[in-house]
Amino acid sequence: MEVALQDAETVAALEVYGSIESGSFLEVYNVGARNEISNREITARILAATGRDENLIRPLPDRLGHDRRYSADCSRLRSLGWAPQVPFAEGLAATVAWNAERRDWWEPIRSGEWRAYYEAQYGGLRSE
User: Fold this and answer.
1) pTM assigned to the model
2) What tens digit of pLDDT does each residue of 39-88 get?
3) Which domains does the chain have, with CATH numbers?
4) Residues with Cβ within 8 Å of residue 37, at least 6 apart in sequence
5) What counts of helices (H) and strands (E) characterise the chain?
6) Are 111 and 68 in contact (CB under 8 A)?
């Protein structure tokens, strides 16, 4: 799985695209770090960063059509001079710290408050 980048990295990529005239309008510019790490490994790293044990990981059966790998070709954006600036471990630590400091942002999700919002916005949850 290609690791998602920090928001700041994505904004920097958009700034490069917007400031360089050699970019082509309506072209696809993937943003990626070229560092593939499995979901399992990312989960283990998050647990380690939060002081939790890996025994919390519960394997699930594969779903039909499960993708084994996600990888974005970011060469077009890189050809314009962009490259990620934050190493994965540093970005993950910053993300974990941000979430630890902002429980008010994610606790409503755990409480179920999100369900009423979701149903109001999207007409209910689908179970598939």
Assistant:
1) 0.66
2) 889 899 999 999 999 999 988 888 777 777 777 888 888 888 888 888 88
3) 7-102 (3.90.25)
4) 1, 3, 88
5) 6, 0
6) no
